């Protein structure tokens, strides 16, 4: 296993740990979508290695972690990563603010899809705070991007190609 693959796997494990980490009651609604953010970065940085299959597997792991309907998060993540794959070259050229705006809308679509499934199951939330992870994720995207990019550059096998 090469260094880039190892660092990608370690960052995904870290994202899952952040996703299930206990938070105070007031902060639960504000938890960023760490797994999707990290997966978006790796789909932009290594589009030939990270794709919809990885998104599907990560989404299924999230479904198991959260105890939600199997495939609920997986379908949303596949949709997000598919769009990132289609636009990864444009996203790379965009500023961090522009990337954050695009990621905000991608995560909003994912949240709406998950909300739709929850509504069909009769578990729809009663508060607009349901959409707060979208805002916090978009807000934290620039820092997430910079940290992951620095790790990617530091542990990259191919030193000629850095994202």
Q: Describe the global form.
A: globular
> What's the end-to-end separation, in Å?
20 Å
Sheet with the most strands? Answer: none
Structural class: mainly alpha
Descriptive notes:
The protein is mainly α. It has one domain. The chain is built from six helices and no strands. α2 packs across α4 (72-93), α2 (34-45) crosses α6 (132-154) and α4 packs antiparallel against α5 (96-120). The chain is globular.
In a nutshell, what does this entry contain?
With 163 residues, the chain is mainly α.
Provide keyphrases for this structure.
163 residues; mainly alpha
SSE map:
Layout: H1 3-20, H2 34-45, H3 52-66, H4 72-93, H5 96-120, H6 132-154
Helix pairs in contact: 1-2, 2-4, 2-6, 3-4, 4-5, 5-6
């Amino acid at each position: 296993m090469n260094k880039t693959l190892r660092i990608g796997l370690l960052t995904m494990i870290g994202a899952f740990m952040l996703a299930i980490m206990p938070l105070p009651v007031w902060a639960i609604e504000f938890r960023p979508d760490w797994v999707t953010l990290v997966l978006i970065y790796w789909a932009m940085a290594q589009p030939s290695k990270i794709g919809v299959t990885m998104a599907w597997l990560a989404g299924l792991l999230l479904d198991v972690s959260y105890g939600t309907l199997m495939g609920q998060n997986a379908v949303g993540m596949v949709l997000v990563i598919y769009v990132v794959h289609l636009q990864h070259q444009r996203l790379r050229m965009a500023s961090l603010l522009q990337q954050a705006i695009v990621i905000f809308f991608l995560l909003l679509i994912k949240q709406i899809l998950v909300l739709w499934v929850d509504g069909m199951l009769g578990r729809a939330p009663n508060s607009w705070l349901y959409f707060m992870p979208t805002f916090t994720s978009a807000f934290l995207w620039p820092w997430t991007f910079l940290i992951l990019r620095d790790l990617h550059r530091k542990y990259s096998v191919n030193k000629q190609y850095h994202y």
